[in-house]
Amino acid sequence: MVFGVKDALYKLGRTLTSTDEVLPNTPDSRNTTPNPPELYHTATDSNLFANSNPNDFDDMDMLPPVNLKGYLPTTKNRLLTVEMCDEIRSLMPTRIQLYNDWHLLYSLEQHGASLHTLYNNITPDDDVNRRIGYVIVIKDRQNGIFGAYANDPWLPHENKRFYGNGECFLWKLEKVPELVIKESADNTLQRTQTEHRKWQFVGYPYTGLNEFAIYCTSEFLSMGAGDGHYGLWCDSSLLRGVSYPCDTFGNETLSKEGPKFHINGVEIWRVG
Predict the structure, then answer these.
(1) Interval 130-178: pLDDT, tens
(2) Range of the domain at 87
(3) Among 24, 50, 85, 233, which residue has the least CB neighbours within 10 Å?
(4) Domains in the chain: how many in total?
């Protein structure tokens, strides 16, 4: 089931008591790591939000426009636009939304297809002590755009597997026809579609059903898990990925290609 920003914010408010609470690395989480993606055969539908009744939310205050920093003049396949950033940051914590500078830390086109290089590029500097966020953007072969937001960078940890907190979420962006409301000759209002298409953001916030927010190794990076499925998974070559519905975020399959997809582009952005 697809939910927009209002539904996502409502669910996030119900499931989180504190957005700063770090997910514990429990023995249970270490013993229930999902099977490798190559063993997957079917996806499981998720109806976690089927009975939710979100309240109306006021329109968000105007935020400063996003500045995308880090693209080279020669970069041809740029995955993000300012319009897309405005959609993605609508589900970020308020303090992160206020940052208008987004810094490109890794780009598959600019830095090459290597998970090791990705990890090296996004390792935080020692002098960064403020709260910041991270966005991964993925493009598949069918030009689908999707990814994740994390409160911590995607890095392997020796003493723990799953980490991150309830601010993490998965997302996807889809191009949809823009609707225009016009008054007809009989004074009734009619909705018509225009040729112009706009980005529609679909967010999948942390549900609180398990603690599998972020998990990275030298062989892959992932977000979300449950019932043997990863919500988002990328291999070490950054050429292939997996996305199944998972309990952590209550998401649908993110890629237009299906549960298993080919990666045409990857970018990691630091927000703040």
Answers:
(1) 889 999 999 999 999 999 999 999 999 887 789 999 999 999 998 887 7
(2) 5-271
(3) 50
(4) 1
